[in-house]
Amino acid sequence: MIKYSTADQAVSIIKSYQNVYIQGSTSIPETLVAALARRGGELKGVNLYSAFAVGRADAPYCKEEYKESFLVNSLFVANNVRGWIAKGYGQSIPAFLGEIPALFRSGIIKLDVALINVSKPNNEGYCSFGVSADLAVSAVECADIIIAQVNDRMPYSYGDAEIHCSRFTAAVEVSEELVEVPSTVPNEIERAIGNNIAELIPDGATLQIGVGGIPNAVLDALHSHKNLGLHTEAMTDGVLPLIEKGIINNSLKKVLPGISVASLALGSRRLYDYMDYQKELLMKDVAWTNAPHRIMQNPKVMAVNSAIEVDLTGQICADSIGTMIFSGVGGQHDFMYGGSLSEGGKTFIALPSATGKGLSKIKATLTDGAGVVTTRHMIQHVVTEYGVAYLQGKNLAERAKALISVAHPSVREELERAAAERYGYSFLRLK
């Protein structure tokens, strides 16, 4: 039996200078976070750790009057702390998402408190992290104090996402809707990219696919495929029609055959309702889902990821706009590596050829200060609406030629001049 308190009472046990983990995905424990922020005037030096998350608004602790109270350390810069970090009040910690649990478990990042958002308990007293197993599994394993908001709007998911209510130091009962991220309807450019990728995905493939218009366009183009599997970091609404039609049936997977596997979910209420007590879906610790040695065990892994920009050597920037950290590495590296080692596996970096403002996303060199998320040594396919550039095994001049062929036509001549200047005759002879 859970003994409930108010949110203010629950967070009153947090002390100055403690390290506090805040659950992410679409399940930020907002009632607890708001109560913690209300203590801003009395606390000092509380380190807040969070990763990928979708907030309804800026985090309530990101206020100038609280700059000495709460020190924001983001393991993946989310929308609710992005502005705060950009102003220099908070910081990001570079890390592969799949390796962050080891930072907790090794004590490199010592967690004192975990704030989590969980489902109502089942008959045995177990609650579920629902849409956010990812880092929550390791955080509650390592934190001395676990403060839960028990939420009747959280689906009950199986796998690593379960915790017995006896583990709670304090608990608050809430009825709080999860943030919804409905499927983005792909535009014409995104559909062209999706079709380019879908043509290269074989029957029997295991999918890792992300969030947004391009991933949805890929999924929309797979309705004639057969016997697909799902082993992914983020699960979205886009997979539901494929599951319902039996196209995703996980029959040929080697890791947990017959079961869809994810670490976090973000979508609409329809997705969350599907997840509730769904035994054909397991939500796993992100250290488990993203382990390259596990990813590679599945056949024909198709890893589809995105980028902010790509240079002519195949370096991928996916986390920053120049020097400004915009997001994080997430699982891109994990799945690009694991997918490349899978028998019959393929990896894709998918992006429009240009930004909404008409600036090329394929550049001679990365923007000053831009970070490399996926190195030129790991890249296979770069896909835009103009086609597919296959880079593996190609020399730098050949890579430049392939990438220029899928760049926006308005910049191809400029990129050719840059490539000729950089690579000389070895590029000119390819024309």
How would you describe this protein?
With 431 residues, this protein is an alpha/beta fold. It folds into two domains: 7-174, Glutaconate Coenzyme A-transferase (3-Layer(aba) Sandwich); 188-428, 3-Layer(aba) Sandwich (Glutaconate Coenzyme A-transferase), CATH 3.40.1080. The protein has 15 helices and 25 strands. Strands 4-3-2-1-5-7-10 form a seven-stranded parallel beta sheet, sandwiched between helices. Strand 3 (70-74), helix 3 and strand 4 (91-92) form a beta-alpha-beta unit. Helix 4 (100-106) packs parallel to helix 5 (136-142) and helix 6 (188-198) crosses helix 7 (213-220). The longest helix is centred in the C-terminal third of the chain and has 15 residues, at 409-423. The protein is globular. The mean pLDDT is 95.
List its salient traits.
431 residues; Glutaconate Coenzyme A-transferase; 2 domains; seven-stranded parallel beta sheet; six-stranded mixed beta sheet; 25 strands; globular
- Mean pLDDT across residues: 95
Number of domains: 2
CATH homologous superfamily of the largest domain, by name?
A: Acetyl-CoA hydrolase/transferase C-terminal domain
Shape: globular
CATH class of the largest domain: Alpha Beta
Second CATH tier, the architecture of the largest domain = 3-Layer(aba) Sandwich
User: Which percent bin holds the helix content?
Assistant: 25-40%
Low-confidence stretches: none
Terminal Cα span = 73 Å
Report the biggest beta sheet as strand number plus sense, adding barrel if it closes. 7 strands, parallel
CATH fold name of the largest domain, please? Glutaconate Coenzyme A-transferase
Question: Cα-atom Rg, whole angstroms?
Answer: 22 Å
Beta content = 15-25%
Number of helices: 15
Structural class: alpha/beta
Physical arrangement of strands within the biggest beta sheet: 4-3-2-1-5-7-10
Q: Please provide the count of β strands.
A: 25
